[in-house]
Amino acid sequence: MEEIIGKIVEDWFLSEPALFATYCTHTLEENSRMSVPMRSGKMRIEYNPEILKEWAPQMIEERLKFEVIRILLAHPYQRQPYKATKAALGMASDVTLSTLYKRPTSITIPSGLKFDRGLCFEEYYNIVKAYLEQPAQQMQSHQYEMKGQALDGGGGASDDPAPKLNDDTHSEIDDSDDIESQIAREQAETAELWEEDQLMQEAVKDVIERARRTHQWGSLSGHLSDMIEASTIVRIDYRRILSWFRASILSSKRKLTRMIPSRRYGFEYMGSKRDFCTKLLVAVDVSGSVDNKQVSQALSIINRFFKYGVENVDVIMFDCGLVGEPMSMKKAPRTLKIGGRGGTEFQAPIDYFAKGQYDGLVMITDGYAEVPTLPENTKGRILWMIYNDELFRKGDSQTLNEYLTWIASFPRSKYVILPPV
Q1: Which helix (H) or strand (E) is 416 found in, with range?
Q2: Positions of E strands within 70-194
Q3: Taking 60 as the threshold, does the pLDDT of residue 375 lie above it?
Q4: Nearest to 133, CA basis, from 186, 191, 93, 85
Q5: What is the pLDDT of residue 197?
Q6: 414, 189, 386, 193: which is closest to 298 by C-alpha?
Q7: What is the C-alpha to C-alpha distance for residues 45 and 27, in angstroms, rounded to an integer?
Q8: DSSP assignment letter at 404
Q9: DSSP-derived secondary structure letter, 413
C-alpha cells in the first residue's frame, strides 16, 4: 500500500504542487485498528491497509486528495466550537468538501441531512449537530445519498465498475436502527485526531501563500482555491484580542515551557511564558434582535478567554439598559441565565465599563443601536464583536454596513466580525 501511495505522491510532485507540498507537512502512518479508510490530524495521515487493499488506485488517490484538501482548509487544526462533538465535526467537514469537490466518490452523506451550498464549515457544523440530535425516527437513517461509488460505511469497495447512480438514487441498508450510530462512530473516528494546532496552521498557511503567489494550484478549481485562501484569514484570534490589551494584562506569573525556545539558548533550554492577568469586562447583547444561538456563541467566546489564560472575567448583559446583576467569573461558565429581550442601547454598558476602570471591554452585539458617548478619562480599550453573517461570508471586514460605520471610528475601539451560528 505504501508503494501505491508513494507513486501517487510522486506524480503529484509535477502535476499537483499544492497537494504535494501539503502532504509533505505530514507523516504517512499505517493504522489497521481504525474502521475508516483514511484520516488526518496531529501532523500525520493515517490509513487502514485492510480497507484500502480492496480499492482501485484511482479511489485511493481521490481519498488521499480528499484528506489533503481537508488539511488545506484547516479542519483538523482550527479552533473547534465550544463542546464540539467529534461526529458532528467529521460529518460537517465531509459536507463542506462535498460542496466544493467534484463528485467525491469515497464518502456518503445521509439523505435526511438537508443543507444549502455556499456555507462555511462552522455553519455546516451547526446544521449537522442539529441533525444528529434529532430523534432516530426522524432521521430516515435507512437512506443515504450516494456520491458516485459508495464505500460501505467507510469499508472497502470492490474494483468492479460502479453502478450508475444519479443524485436521486438511494441505497437501502438493513438494520436501520443501528446505522445512524454506526455512521456517527465512524465520523467521530475520522475527527479523532483533530485539535487546535497553531504551528500546523502556520505551516499550511505557508503552503497556501506559496501556491497563491505562483498560481500553482494544480487541478484544484478556482472556487476551491478561493475557499482555501479564505481559510487562512483568522476571524477570531483570541491571542491577538488579548494582546491588544497588552499594556495592562501582562502577568508576573512566569512559567517554564519546552514549547517556546529560550531567547538566549534556543530549544536546548526551556523558554518561558506569562499568563494573562486582566480586569476584563464582557458585555453581552440580549436584546430582541439577538437570537438564542448568538447568545450561546457569546458564552463560547467567554469560555475561550479562560482557555487562553484570563483568570477573571466580569460579565454584564444589556438591552435598553443593564439586565440583572454583573457576574464575576473565575472559571468557564456552562450556562448564562438570560433576561432582557427589549430594545438595544449601548450607553449603560459603556458607562459601567468607564466607572469600573477595566483594562478592556468586549461588546458582543449585532450593533443595532444609537451611537453612545465615551465618558472622559476612560482608560481601557473596547473590542466590538459583531454578529453579521453577510460580512463574514464576503470576508470583507473593511466595509461595514451603513448602520455600523460609526464603530470603526469610535474612540479606543476595534472590531471583529463573528462567524455565523
Answers
A1: strand 413-418
A2: 108-110, 143-146, 170-172
A3: yes
A4: 85
A5: 86
A6: 386
A7: 6
A8: G
A9: E
Distances in whole angstroms, Cα of residue 186 to Cα of each of 90, 109, 399: 9, 12, 42
Per the prediction, the chain carries an average pLDDT of 76
Give the cell for residue 197.
494546532
Residue 372 CA neighbour count, 13 Å, CB half: 26
Q: How many residues does the chain have?
A: 421
User: Any idea which residue has 494546532 for its cell?
Assistant: 197
Judge whether 147 and 113 are in contact, CB under 8 Å.
Answer: no
The letter for the amino acid at 356 is: G
Q: Which range (30-44, 331-345, 400-414) has the least confidence?
A: 331-345
Q: How many CB atoms lie within 10 A of CB 348?
A: 17
Residue by residue, DSSP assigns 317-342 as: EESSSEEEEEEEESS--S-------S
Cβ atoms within 10 Å, residue 154 = 23
DSSP 270-333: EEEEEEE---EEEEEE-STTS-HHHHHHHHHHHHHHHHTT---EEEEEESSSEEEEEEEESS--
In this predicted model, what pLDDT tens digit does every residue of 321-370 receive, in sequence order?
898 888 887 655 555 566 656 788 999 999 999 988 788 899 999 888 88
- The residue with greater pLDDT, 275 or 379, is 379
What whole-number distance in Å separates Cα of residue 353 and Cα of residue 316? 10
